[in-house]
Amino acid sequence: MTRGGFHHQRFAALLFLSAAILVGWLGSGNVSASSPEATSSKAQPPIPMPVSFQDLLALPIGETPPQTVIYGPAPQQTLLHFPSALETHVNLLLVHGGCWSNAYDRQHAIPMARALAGAGYNVWLAEYRRVGDPGGGWPGSVDDIASATQKIAALSEEPPWLVGHSAGGHLALLTAADPTLPIKGVLALAAITNLATYAEQEGSCPSMVAEFLGGPPESHPDRYTLATVHNKTFLKPMRLILGEVDTIVGPDQLTGFAETNTKIIANSGHFDLIHPATTAFGQVLKTLEDLTQTGRNSDD
Q: What are phi and psi of 204, to 5 degrees?
C-alpha cells in the first residue's frame, strides 16, 4: 500500500472512530474500527466537558488483554502493545501522566490506547519507574522512556512517535529533545514544560516536582535546567495541546514554544484530552493525523 493510500484509509478509520467511540464500542474493546456491524448504529453526542479522573477510571478497558513486552529488568519496565487493525507502520509510544508518582499507573490510559489503535496506529503503552519506585524519579523515569523508545524501534520497521499526557507529556518532550534517540516526533498533551515555575504553584502535582527532582530548585539547579523542556531545541516535528479550562496545567507551560506548535482547545479540561468520548479527543486525533502526515512528507 502506498503512503497516500494508507493516509486515506486511516483518515476514514479516524472519522468512523469519532462516531464509534461515542456509543461505547471501542471503549469496551469488543468492536474494532473495521467491524462491519459497527456502521449500523447511531452515534450519540459527545459527553460534556470537562471530565474528571474518575470519569477516566470508569471507562471499560476491554476484555482482550494486550501483549506485554519487557524493555528492562525492573517490573515497571514494560509495554502494552495495542496493534492496529489497519496495515500501518506508524508506531506510537504512549506515556501516561500522574505527577511522576507511582500512585498513578497506566490503567487510566488503556481506553485511549485502544482508541488510538482503532484510529489506525500501532500503539505501545509504557509503564515506567516513578517516584516511589526503586530507581524512579530523576533520572530513572526519563531513562525508562528512552529505553522504551529504543525497544520499539528495535522491534518495528519505524521509530515511534511519542504521545504523552501531563507529567508523561514532560517525559515525552524531554525524550524527543534527545537527537540520539530513534524518534519521529512528539505530541504533548497538557504537558508540564517548566519545572521550576510549576513547582512554585499550588496543588498536589506541583508539589511532586521536588520529589521527582530530589529537592527544590535552589538545591539542584542543574537538575531543573536539564529537566526543563521549554527552552530545548526540537529537531523533529512537535505539537503541544492544552485545555482552556485545565486547572492542573496552565497556559504558562506553553511559554517558550512557537504559536504554530501549540493549540488550546476551548472548554477542555486536563483529562478531556485523553478521554475518547470528548470533542477534545477528536481534536487530538486530528492534530496527531496532521503531525504524522507532516513527518511522512518530510521523509519523502
A: -70, -35
CATH class for the domain made up of 3-299: alpha beta
Q: What is the pLDDT of residues 36-64, one digit of tens each?
A: 333 333 456 899 999 999 999 999 999 89
Distances, alpha carbon 61 to alpha carbons 187, 222, 239, 256, 271, in Å: 23, 40, 27, 37, 16
Residue 269 — very low, low, confident or very high, per pLDDT cuts 50/70/90? Answer: very high
- Tell me the per-residue pLDDT of 188-244, one tens digit each, with 9 for 90 and over: 999 999 999 999 999 999 999 999 999 999 999 999 999 999 999 999 999 999 999
* Spatial separation of the C-alpha atoms in residues 6 and 269, rounded to whole Å: 32
Dihedral sign from CA coordinates of 295, 166, 153, 18: negative
Taking each helix axis as running N to C, give the angle between helix 110-118 and helix 3-22, from 0 to 180 degrees, rounded to the nearest 10.
130
The domains of the chain are located at: 3-299
Strand ranges of the sheet holding 78-82, from the earlier edge strand across to the other edge: 67-70, 78-82, 122-126, 91-95, 161-165, 185-189, 238-243, 262-265
Instruction: Give the H/E segment covering residue 298.
Output: helix 279-299
For 7, 201, 216, 229, the CA distances from 196, given in Å and listed in that order, are 40, 9, 8, 11
What gap in Å lies between CA 14 and CA 25, rounded to an integer?
14
Query: What CA–CA distance (Å, rounded) separates 78 from 98?
Result: 17
CA–CA dist 3, 118 (Å, integer): 18
- Distance, in Å, from the CA atom of 222 to the CA atom of 10, rounded to the nearest integer, reads 43
The length of the chain in residues reads 300
Cβ-contact 95, 129 below 8 angstroms: no
